[in-house]
Amino acid sequence: MSLLYRILGFAAFLVILASTATFAFGLLVVGVVVLSGVGLYRYYRLKKNFKNGKIRSKSKGYSSGEIIDMPVEERNERKRV
């Protein structure tokens, strides 16, 4: 009878191990699918907005080509004693 319990215990352990591995793999697959979906959504949204002209330039420069001439500040830095 002891041998039967050992075999059943080992079989239960293998079932628990297999179900844990399957759950972890399924969770990994769901994460990959969700991240891929988000990436595709962002890609197509960016592509659609670019066609409609809603995307602004991310550069800090002036897109019109205008040159802004600002007067130079003169600083008088003398050491005071």
UniProtKB/TrEMBL annotation:
TM ranges: 12-41
Please give the organism.
Desulfitobacterium metallireducens DSM 15288
Q: What's this protein's name? A: Uncharacterized protein
Q: Which UniProt keywords apply?
A: Membrane, Transmembrane, Transmembrane helix
| Source organism superkingdom | Bacteria
